[in-house]
Amino acid sequence: MELDYDRLVALRKQSAAWRLLKADHAALMLSFFNKVFVEQGVRSIAGAELVERLDDELFALNDRLGQGTFSKTARAYLDGWSAPENGWLRKYYPPDSDEPHYDATAAVEKAVAWVRSLEERSFVGTESRLSTIFDLLRQMTFGTETDPEARLVELNRRRHEIDLEIARVEAGEVDVLDSAALRDRYQQVTDTAHGLLADFREVEANFRDLDRDLRSKIAAWDGAKGELLDEVLSSRESIAESDQGRTFQAFYDFLLAPSRQEELKTLLTEVEAMEAIDEPDPRMRRMARDWLEAAERTQTTVRQLSGQLRRFLDDQVRSEDRRVLQLVREIEAQALALRDVPGVDLVAGIDAAAPTIVLPMERPLYTPLVKVPIESTGIEAGDEEFAAEALFEAVYVDSARLTAAVHQALGSRTQVSLAETLREHPLEQGLAELVAYLALPDDGFTTVFDDQRQEEIAWTSEEAVQQVATVPVVTFARTSPGIAWASSSKEGR
After folding, report:
1. What is the pTM of this model?
2. What is the rounded distance in angstroms from the CA atom of residue 338 to the CA atom of residue 349?
């Protein structure tokens, strides 16, 4: 982007991050937003809890800086920060909740990141970033090369380098990174990880803007449904096929792979145990879980587009039905008004409210009645101890047992798939138990649905018949903060 004078003036008026930096209480907002939404990785917080935390912060600051420094109430500050003209907090109502919730916007992430960059650092690594630049350039040139000979030359060069390294290791010459190189790479890892988490807010905001535009079009649409469907579906397809959509889907698939999750946890544990890393970043221990929650929120925002479109179609059908009924009533009223008018001859009179039309081929053939004999003799009294409630409780799925099975399958892992859980705990009650797995309520884990992929779940019924159900790929991800990460970190240390 070219930073000329006119562009900067326009950006100063449009950018919410710029307005945040030059606001009257920018220090209060940046410190509070950083503490709640950035350092703790909160993506959604109830309004009552956020008011309480801000009230504690204001009390401490007024006690230290003098009463009257921040004269407004916590709720008044939050209302101002979430106002549309500011755009620093997003205030919304989650489904099935009448309490407002808050989330930081992408502008907050940008402003906090810029302020962090102003701090003087005792160590600034450069070598790892230069290596990353070379690696990315090689990937770009090699990834777009169509000549097989050129690809073979590059692959042979890599193999030669690997052979030389193997020979040096076999000879006892092992190149080990020193403490400066380790700190350099760890600094780049943390910066990239935090930047990736911050980018999710912007991606989610872009999808939310599309959803808002769709709602605006639906509210003002008065044309044919087909035209709006074509426009919306083409927009949805353009998002999925855009560079941002493809890279996000690739990242989401990569993150859901259990092998990658285990590898990331193992690598982080080994790195944090190194002596060169004096103070490991505590946020890195829960980074994978924060990525997963942020990606799921973004996927949920995309799914809202389909839900909004479905509601529009249902509302449109009901609106058209009401219009048809209105026209019918107008015709009936007009006919009644003309019935007794002299000089107006009605073509025909109908006794019923509407004519009954039956086509010849729709008439059923004659079917003789079959009299079923009823044997009323020999009736015996039933068992007095018979419980009629058993008829209504023939199939009961114990959700507590299924929740315990998921926790046992999770173990020390951060996530486990439904297929892995069922391999350890096969289905005992068939389809009813499978449906119960998809709606387990528990605070210790969250259920993530991947609508882009499907898998088959098989079980054997009581009649010894093989049953198969096709469901989306389901993953149970641990939400209890720091359980698996903390234990792994202690073992690594």
Report:
1. 0.47
2. 13
